[in-house]
Structures are given as structure tokens and as C-alpha cells.
Amino acid sequence: MKILMLASEAEPYSKTGGLADVVGSLSRTLAGLGHEVGVVLPLYQETAPVLAKRSVSTIHEHLAIPLGKETRNVAIRRVAEGGVSWFFVDDKEYFDRPGLYGTSEGDHPDNPQRFTTLVRAALAIAASDFPADVLHCHDWQTGLAPALIKSGLAPGLPGGKLPVLFTIHNLGYDGLYDPAILPRLGLPDELFHVDGLEFHGKVSFLKAGLLYSGKVSTVSEAYSREIITPEFGLGKEGIIIRREADLIGILNGVDYAVWNPEIDPLIAAPYSIDDLSGKRKCKRDLLAQVGLPAAAIDVPLIGIVSRLAWQKGLDIVAGVANEIVDLGAMLVILGTGEAALEKRFALWSERLPDRIAARLAYDNRLAHMIEAGADVFLMPSRYEPCGLNQMYSLKYGTVPIVRATGGLLDTVEPWDRETWQGNGFHLADDAPQSLVAAVKDALAVYKNRDAWSVIMRNGMTRDYSWERSAGKYVAVYRELASSGS
Ligand code: ADP
Ligand code: GLC
């Protein structure tokens, strides 16, 4: 099939979180399965140095993109890599700046214009350079694409059609704007109604994606069940229930060419299920890197790699960090995000430097070092559409403690003391004491070296490679293409 992806980030060109991993690796997997895959992305400031190392062709030096009364002149660059055609929308005013979506000062105020430009450029590419059978849109930044297609506002598409799959990676981000933005984006007022883009008096890009696409998917089966409930629907459950017949959950995969301790070039020593000795070297290396005492090599080390956002429940960790280390553990945190939370973790590491290390940065290498060097990985998320780090942790023999929700529930099976089945530990709720209790449980198993090696192996043998999930996407693409919706 000919598949066009539209997203706001994809590794190795741009990344703030798991969306980038998924768009990058799903696209390469689909190409590996023999499909023709194109991906449309913005050419951000952080993308430019990556492209400088590639062979880049310019397929449009001046592509006119209508945006209300304005016409934007964008260039379209193309890179062929991993069997995929990567198209980059080069609009310097909109994308050549720090921050994909915003800075510490807040979101970029012209995000609606920026992502409408991205969407319209993608539709122009679909009309001429890459006439696809299906368009796969990801998250709110791309939500207007199906709305424009369905409303006949995407000129030149072959047969006037392009079926759309819209994937929700995170319902917590809407793209909500004042309706005054509509004419500036060139969108007719007629789209602003309760069965269209209107959401509580605002324009919602996410709602556009949810309502106008042929099918809607999300990134785990559990999350697809959760988002039709008030607890997880975040006010959008009514809209999602309307699409229930077209809603499907497909678990994300892992790119084991990148996240695999046997071949990972970013860790101190390779290791595998048959020879775990390298993992101890990785732990030693990690302790040195983050300034925790080398003598503490046998003290269980709990790792966290995360955006510091409410979703991730790390305020709960910050509230009981001393209680956790008092149980006889150390904590290493890598993350950026909410300033207040960064400060709380920085304070803990100042107060308990032998027990808690906080690196408030974005650092891919350290992320790999933590996956390899920690004993336990903590993800107390309040909600988690899929979550990738717990799957990476399983592969690295780093036992996950997770909140039993979304993709965490689908991938981490709680340890059973009787049968020695299971690959991690579940938190029942977001109460701080549930977190302390789960860490206590995990540390008790850690003390039993036989049990611990079984729990590690149970995780390391799990296979979350992309092929299975990619096959499920292809089935959805085929259904969409044959129905033409
Ligand atoms: P989300 O997309 O909600 O942030 P995921 O678990 O799906 O959560 O994916 C997070 C991705 O971002 C992983 O690849 C993780 O390693 C990476 N990541 C998050 N924070 C950092 C950080 N501070 N430094 C390096 N990588 C990070
Ligand atoms: C989102 C979700 C995360 C998911 C990722 C990729 O950022 O928060 O759970 O793994 O998208 O689908």
C-alpha cells in the first residue's frame, strides 16, 4: 500500500516524547514490510543538523500554501532513509526556532498557524508528489487534515478522496483556540458547530481529528477502553463514544535496533539474558555518571526517565522520595518539564546526594544508561496511553513498577509470589502510600536473588517488536482504503 504519515515529530529528526519513537519506527517497519511510506514533518531548528548529515533533495522550492488571507511560501525537502520518503516542510518563520511546541515561557502563540501550514503542505504533497491510499494522522497537530478533506477544502486529491486514520497518542493535549482564529487559518465559520470543530466555545484541533477521520485508533487496548469513561476521557468521552464503532487500540512496538542491551552502543557493556554480567558494569557506569557512590553497587537503584508532567505522577514520587530511599534504595531521575517539579527533585538530590540523583535535562544517552544500569524502573503515571519506557525496561532486565493503567496495564504483568510468573509490579492507585508499598514489595523480591533473576528474565523474553502491531495498522489501512472513507 501507499501510506502517508503526518506527524509533528519523528525520530531521528525531531523528538519531545514517545510520539517521535512511534512515528519513526512504525514508518520504517511498514516500509520493511514492503509498503511505500512517506512521512510529512516540520523542518524544525533541531531537524536542520540531522539533515545536514543526509542527502537532501528539494522537491518544491516555493510551494504556495493558503492560510486565510495570507499565502505562505514553503519549501519541501525530501530525504530517503530506511526505505521511507521523509518530507520536510521548510517554513523558517514558523519552524526555525527553539522548541517544537513552545519554550519554558509557554506554548508558541502561533501554533494554530504553524500546524495548519503543516497540514496544508501535507495535503498538497498527497495531491501531487505522494498520492497515497491512506493518510495516517497523529495527535491534535494534524487534526485539521481530515476536516479539510471531508469538507472539500483539500484541492487536487486523486478522486477527491483520501481516507484518514487518526491516532490518539495523548488525549491530554487538545489544540484549543479562540474561534477568532478560524478566518486566519482560512477555515469557514460553518465548521464551527457542536458536530464540528467547536468544543466548549473554542476551536479544537483534536476534535477535528476525532470526528472527521474514517477511523480512530489509540496506542493500547486498555487506553481505548479507558477513554470512553469520564475518568480518562478528560471531557472528550462523549465525542469518542460517538466514534466507538470505529475506535481501535493497537499497542505500540519497540524498535529493538535502538533499544536492545545486546547491541546498544550508548551503554557501558552489552549484556543479554544468557550473560547478565554487563548489566553490573552498566550500573557502575551509571552511578559514576550521576554522582552516586560507587560503594552502593549492591543497593537497588530505581530509575525514572520522563517528561515532568502531571500525567506522569512524578509529584507523587517527589512527595515520598525520602520514604522510598529509607526503604534501602537509591533513585536516579532524568527529566524535564514543570519547573516546580524540577525544583523539588533538585532539592532532594541536594539534600540526599548519596541516595538521589536528578538530571533535569533531555539526554538520550543517559536515558539508555538508566534503562541499562538501574535495577527497577518507576512509572507511576496517572494515565498512560501506551508508554514506551516500561517496554524498554523489560528488554533491559530493569523491572518496572507501574500504575495499572493504559499501555502499562497491557505490558507489565504483576509478579506472582506463588507461581513466579509476572515481569513487574502494579500500583493500585495514585495514593503516595501505594507507591511506597509497591517499592517495598519490589525490594523484598530483589533480596531473593533467584526470584529477581526470574522476574528479570520474564521481562527480557517479552517481545514487543513492531511487526505485529504494524500488521494491525495495515489491516485498518486496507479497510479504510476499500471503503474510501
Ligand atoms: P511520553 O511520550 O508520554 O513522554 P513515552 O514513554 O511514550 O512517554 O515516551 C517517552 C520517550 O521520551 C522515551 O523514548 C524516553 O526515553 C524519552 N524521554 C523522555 N524524557 C527524556 C529525557 N529527559 N531525556 C531523554 N529521553 C527522554
Ligand atoms: C504519548 C503518550 C505515551 C505514548 C506515546 C507514543 O506521548 O503519553 O503513553 O507511549 O504517546 O504513542
How would you describe what is shown here?
- The chain is of the alpha/beta class and 485 residues long.
- It folds into two domains: 2-253 and 466-483, Rossmann fold (3-Layer(aba) Sandwich); 277-460, Glycogen Phosphorylase B (Rossmann fold).
- Helix content is 38%, strand content 21%.
- The chain has helices at residues 18-32, 48-52, 92-95, 111-127, 144-150, 181-185, 205-212, 221-226, 230-233, 237-242, 277-290, 314-326, 339-351, 364-373, 389-395, 406-411, 432-447, 449-460, 466-483; strands spanning 2-6, 36-42, 57-67, 70-81, 84-90, 102-103, 106-107, 134-138, 164-168, 176-177, 198-199, 202-204, 215-218, 247-249, 301-308, 330-337, 356-359, 376-379, 399-403, 425-427.
- The strands form four sheets. The protein has a nine-stranded mixed beta sheet, with helices on both faces. It has a six-stranded parallel beta sheet with strand order 17-16-15-18-19-20, with helices on both faces.
- Helix 5 packs across helix 7, helix 11 packs across helix 14 (364-373) and helix 12 runs parallel beside helix 13.
- The chain starts with a strand and ends with a helix.
- Bound molecules: adenosine-5'-diphosphate and alpha-D-glucopyranose.
- Residues 17-19, 22, 169-170, 219, 252, 384-388, 407 line the site of alpha-D-glucopyranose (GLC).
- Adenosine-5'-diphosphate binds at residues 17-19, 21, 305-307, 334-336, 362-364, 367, 386-389.
